[in-house]
Write a structure and sequence with these properties.
By secondary structure, the chain is an alpha/beta fold. It has a single domain, classed as Rossmann fold (3-Layer(aba) Sandwich). The chain has 9 helices and 7 strands; from the N terminus they run H-H-H-E-H-E-H-E-H-E-H-E-H-E-E-H. A 7-stranded mixed beta sheet has the order 3-2-1-4-5-7-6, sandwiched between helices. A hairpin with a 6-residue loop joins strand 6 and strand 7. The longest helix is centred in the middle third of the chain and has 14 residues.
């Protein structure tokens, strides 16, 4: 049973499957996989794989941070992972989902309205959104499978308030981390902390890269995306 796979996996990760909102995790995932047949939301097709690689992976953040009452932004949310999952496990978090592709946000909005999941939506590129009043307005900014870490840092750290955290979901990260250290420092971040974790049923080590924001980001960042990608900090 898929619910046993999810809830047993959560218990193994030290998470509470009885929390308010967790009953909607599978219904949301089912909608995502159904829509994925006509809209490219994920490369993961099998429900069992999606439970591990999307739901359990997204939930790993709760082993590192408390999102209670926090303003959370999920950058490049795609199919709503991890943002929707975070909103369901911690209903007091105020989660905003950001993506540049309107069709993806339309799907998430439709699914969240049907399941009564309270999240907000922004259709924009992160580097443009960081030039609005939203700059340094979030306690936690997440990114998963979006870009290399030096690029992600310039896109995401300007949106984190001083004292907040940028969190990147990654696999093997040591090389990217070395390349990103200078960028993190320039953007106002502190020494990155890497937290390794296992997803039950998968023989692979995943990592969360947590960067606390110590200082405001200089106003010249983020640059235009073409510059960021061509010449990372």
């Amino acid at each position: 049973m898929l619910d046993a796979l999810l809830f047993d996996g959560m218990r193994e990760m030290g998470l509470d499957p009885n929390r308010q909102g967790t009953a909607k995790l599978l219904p949301y995932l089912n909608r995502l996989l159904e829509r994925n047949q006509s809209l490219n939301l994920t490369a993961v097709k099998a429900p069992e794989d999606a439970i591990r690689l999307h739901l359990l992976d997204a939930l790993a953040l709760f082993s590192a941070l408390d999102l209670s009452g926090k303003q959370v932004l999920d950058v490049g949310t795609g199919g709503g992972i991890p943002g929707v999952v975070l909103a369901l496990y911690e209903p007091s978090a105020r989660v905003t989902l950001l993506d540049a592709t309107a069709k993806k946000l339309d799907f998430i909005r439709e699914a969240c309205e049907a399941l009564a999941i309270p999240v907000a939506f922004v259709n924009a590129r992160a580097e443009e959104y960081a030039r609005t009043d939203a700059r340094e307005g979030y306690d936690v900014v997440t990114a998963r499978a979006v870009a290399a870490l030096p690029v992600l840092c310039e896109l995401c750290l300007p949106l984190v308030r001083p004292g907040g955290y940028f969190v990147a979901y990654k696999g093997a990260v040591e090389e990217e981390l070395q390349e990103a250290r200078q960028a993190i420092k320039r953007l106002g971040g502190g020494e990155p902390h890497v937290r390794e974790y296992q997803i039950p049923g998968l023989d692979v080590t995943r990592t969360l890269v947590l960067v606390e924001k110590h200082m405001p980001t200089p106003t010249k960042y983020p640059r235009a995306y073409a510059q960021i990608k061509k010449k990372p900090l």
